[in-house]
Amino acid sequence: MKTLLLLRHAKSSWDDNTLRDFDRPLNKRGLKAAPMVGGMMRKRKLRPDLVLSSPAERAKETTRLVCEAAGLIAVARYDDGIYEASARRLLEIVSRIEDAVNTAMLVGHNPGLEELLAILTGEPHRMTTASLACIELSIERWNEVTSGTGKLQWILKPKELK
Question: Which of 30, 40, 84, 134 is the most exposed place for a label (fewest CB within 10 A)?
Fold first, then answer.
């Protein structure tokens, strides 16, 4: 069994229209929500062996804040392929994770994350900003991941942490 955590980046700012989408930072709400998610991870003793993140600014900020609050000292890996990725592309990225990793966290964007969750579990679920989904995968090796191999354990949304 493997565990995959899907984390959608926290709420980002649209205040500066000169910034490219890739460069948008978190807004005030996002800066508050990300550490709350990390704190919940710490309480639940969720310690991914690997964190893969989109290199977009809002995803990098989310990753840093969540990992700090969760007490994770492992350095995240940034994968250009996660930004604007389709669910199929995300599935391919997950399938390349080293087998020594038992729990991985993927930090990215919609619609790809929601679509990946639906492919893995066979059910559609909404992932608002800073939502964290925990999926148990009935696989022994990451390259075995395919549609229907996952069972959703829970989805945590920042509203539920207030």
Answer: 84
Other CB atoms closer than 10 Å to residue 47's CB: what's the count?
Answer: 14
In the numeric block, which tokens belong to residue 135? 């999926």
Is 49 in contact with 104 (CB distance < 8 Å)? yes
HSE, side-chain direction, 13 A CA sphere, residue 30: 22
Superfamily of domain 2-11+22-161: Phosphoglycerate mutase-like (3.40.50.1240)
Confirm whether pTM is higher than 0.90. Answer: yes
Residue corresponding to tokens 């989904």:
133
Q: Under DSSP, is residue 37 helix (H, G, I), strand (E, B) or coil?
A: helix
For 46-91, write each residue's pLDDT tens digit: 999 999 999 999 999 999 999 999 999 767 999 999 999 999 999 9
Backbone angles phi, psi at 118, to 5 degrees: -65, -40
Cβ pair 104, 94 in contact under 8 A:
yes
The strand pair at 103-108 and 2-8 is best described as: parallel
